[in-house]
């Protein structure tokens, strides 16, 4: 969940990128939003706004283009397909205290949520009764580290609709504090307009979990009698998946059951394992091509001795990045396409995915031959450059703007001076720097004699903990009341149980090829691959050939889903019904 920038730059690209131009609008939105979801641009805050803006433009194109029709398809968790039905939900707010515990401020904020009563109103026959009371299921989807506008599809065709329709329940999508419109009034939090650490200090795990608890305690629904028994099924994916698990453990009297999808219940300062999965679950030719290219890249920009400036400049020109003066920034830029991997979804089963296009580009010998002619002058100043690195540069060439602030890619001033606008990227980076870590690094140097193992190396050695920590320290300078920790205090989220967290009526659902799997209970590195039984009371499911919270997407025509997805959706309906009977 770290890097956020890349695709928005297509809007002002110098060079057309064939593999991108061949994608449909739907695929482009899927790709763009997946990169934003993967946090691929935390290292590059200066270009985040370009991507966010371009994603909105693509989505607007889909809305405005009547010629685009998609047959009975779900919207993905990232909102990449046009909506199939008229909206049936309301947008509402609930007042929340900014500080639930210490009384350091009396400030409040309006926590936004979407409420869908449609399946409750039409589903009385599906609800059960116990001890004379009607059981009313409430499916709460945690919006996580995002504006919930991107989560609207969950009510329309995704997991919230699936479970609410199956049980005659109420659907809710709940926004996280400091994201979207769920913000305190900046003017009430001290002088100035920027969002500094003094204003962000209440953005933490404990406060945000209590928001959800307070919401559940106080939620009321039109037409639901006081004699009904409301039972909350809490769903989340990724960071929100961890929150779903934490809610079930911390507030068992409020959360009847929880589904934690791709739940990163473990937190680690360093996370090289993210890229191990990208290499291991890519086609073998692609994995080898990436490692070959990065080996050649680091021979120039991260040698054991001093960098040859002439060679480094020539290499940057191959990537259309001569104005990117920092080699750390350049290394981060080269790594950005790796975020495409997280855009993989079972919706791509029947077509070529963006990741497959990227992989095909790396091994395109015909294109490499053309590039050697086009860039003969730069190549003459370099040692042998393999086709794989040359082709990687071709992908990146189309991404950079002509000019402007985006050149200052990793400049921490983009976090310090936000002009009063708090982006999702800044809010999440604050959480990463304070509590979660997840520094997506190059692998450590292996050492056989000491047993220091490593993993596939598909990004530059320049991307290290120093790079991340500098952004944390310089992007969030000390305030009057709060200062950043020396390193992220990962003991806070890990105290909820990490990979060993297990309680009744808590389901863990993971994708076999999810790059975040190493931080979930199915972790091969920290949980023996998930050595637990799969039961109705404690479901524990690993979906083959699947990626990041891929169960949250559904089709209106369930028989059109791949068998592995149909199976997990049927199982989710079954265990939720069983939980509601308890």
Average pLDDT taken over every residue: 87
CATH architecture of the largest domain: 3-Layer(aba) Sandwich
Total DSSP E strands:
13
CATH superfamily grouping of the largest domain = Alpha/Beta hydrolase fold, catalytic domain
* Rg: 24 Å
Task: Give start-end ranges of low-pLDDT stretches.
Answer: 1-19, 65-85, 402-407
What's the CATH topology name of the largest domain?
Answer: Rossmann fold
Report the CATH C-level class of the largest domain. Alpha Beta
Characterise the protein shown here.
Residues 1-18 form the signal peptide. One of its GO terms (biological process) is proteolysis. Belongs to the peptidase S28 family. InterPro entries: AB_hydrolase_fold, Peptidase_S28. By secondary structure, this protein is of the alpha/beta class. It has two domains: 116-186 and 196-266 and 497-581, Rossmann fold; 268-492, no CATH class. Residues 1-19, 65-85 and 402-407 have low confidence and may be disordered. The longest helix is centred in the C-terminal third of the chain and has 19 residues, at 563-581. It contains 22 helices and 13 strands. Helix 2 packs antiparallel against helix 3 (48-64), helix 6 (159-167) crosses helix 22 and helix 11 crosses helix 17 (387-397). It has helices at residues 18-21, 25-37, 48-64, 118-122, 153-156, 159-167, 197-200, 205-218, 239-250, 273-280, 284-301, 309-318, 327-335, 354-362, 365-374, 376-379, 387-397, 413-416, 424-436, 465-475, 491-494, 563-581; strands at 2-3, 39-40, 89-97, 108-116, 129-130, 133-142, 170-174, 229-237, 255-261, 268-270, 437-439, 506-511, 540-543.
């Amino acid at each position: 969940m770290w890097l956020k920038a890349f695709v928005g730059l297509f809007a002002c690209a110098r060079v057309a990128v064939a593999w991108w131009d061949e994608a449909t609008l739907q695929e482009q939105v899927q790709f763009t939003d997946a990169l934003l979801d993967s946090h691929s641009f935390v290292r590059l805050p200066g270009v985040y706004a370009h991507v966010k803006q371009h994603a909105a433009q693509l989505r607007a194109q889909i809305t405005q283009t009547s010629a685009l029709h998609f047959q009975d398809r779900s919207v993905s968790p990232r909102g990449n397909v046009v909506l199939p039905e008229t909206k049936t939900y309301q947008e509402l707010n609930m007042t929340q205290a900014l500080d639930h515990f210490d009384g350091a401020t009396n400030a409040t904020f309006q926590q936004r949520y979407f409420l869908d009563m449609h399946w409750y109103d039409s589903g009385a026959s599906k609800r059960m009764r116990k001890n004379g009371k009607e059981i009313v299921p409430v499916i709460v989807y945690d919006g996580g580290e995002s504006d919930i506008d991107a989560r609207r599809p969950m009510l329309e065709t995704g997991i919230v609709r699936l479970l609410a329709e199956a049980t005659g329940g109420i659907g809710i999508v709940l926004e996280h504090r400091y994201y979207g419109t769920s913000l305190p009034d900046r003017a009430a939090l001290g002088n100035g307009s920027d969002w500094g650490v003094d204003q962000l200090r209440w953005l933490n795990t404990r406060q945000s979990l209590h928001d959800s608890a307070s919401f559940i305690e106080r939620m009321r629904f039109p037409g639901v009698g006081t004699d009904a028994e409301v039972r909350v099924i809490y769903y989340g994916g990724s960071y929100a998946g961890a929150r779903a698990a934490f809610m079930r453990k911390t507030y068992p009297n409020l959360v009847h059951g929880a589904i934690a999808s791709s739940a990163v219940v473990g937190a680690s300062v360093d996370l090289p394992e993210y890229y191990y999965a990208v290499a291991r679950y890519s086609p073998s030719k692609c994995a080898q091509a990436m490692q070959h290219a990065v080996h050649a890249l680091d021979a120039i920009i991260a040698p054991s001795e001093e960098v040859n400036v002439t060679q480094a400049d020539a290499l940057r020109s191959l990537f259309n990045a001569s104005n990117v003066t920092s080699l750390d920034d350049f290394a981060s830029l080269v790594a950005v396409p790796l975020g495409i991997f997280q855009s993989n979804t079972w919706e791509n089963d029947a077509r070529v995915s963006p990741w497959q296009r990227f992989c095909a580009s790396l091994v395109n010998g015909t294109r490499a031959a053309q590039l050697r002619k086009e860039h003969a002058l730069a190549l003459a100043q370099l040692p042998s450059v393999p086709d794989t690195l040359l082709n990687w540069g071709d992908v990146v060439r189309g991404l950079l703007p002509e000019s402007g602030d985006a050149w200052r890619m990793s400049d921490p001033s983009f976090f310090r001076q936000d002009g009063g606008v708090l982006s999702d990227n800044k809010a999440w980076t604050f959480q990463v720097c304070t509590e979660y870590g997840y520094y997506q690094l190059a692998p450590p140097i292996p050492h056989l004699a000491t047993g220091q193992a490593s993993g596939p190396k598909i990004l530059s050695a320049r991307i290290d903990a120093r790079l991340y920590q500098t952004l944390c320290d310089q992007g969030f300078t000390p305030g009057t009341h709060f200062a950043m920790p020396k390193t992220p205090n990962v003991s806070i989220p890990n105290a909820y149980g990490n990979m060993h967290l297990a309680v009744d009526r808590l389901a863990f659902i993971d994708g076999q090829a999810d790059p975040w799997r190493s931080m979930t209970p199915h972790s091969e590195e920290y949980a023996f691959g998930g050595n637990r039984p799969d039961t109705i009371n404690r479901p524990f499911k690993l979906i083959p050939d699947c990626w990041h919270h891929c169960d949250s997407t559904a089709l209106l025509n369930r028989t059109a889903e791949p068998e592995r997805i149909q199976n997990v959706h049927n199982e989710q309906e079954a265990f939720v019904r069983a939980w509601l009977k308890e």
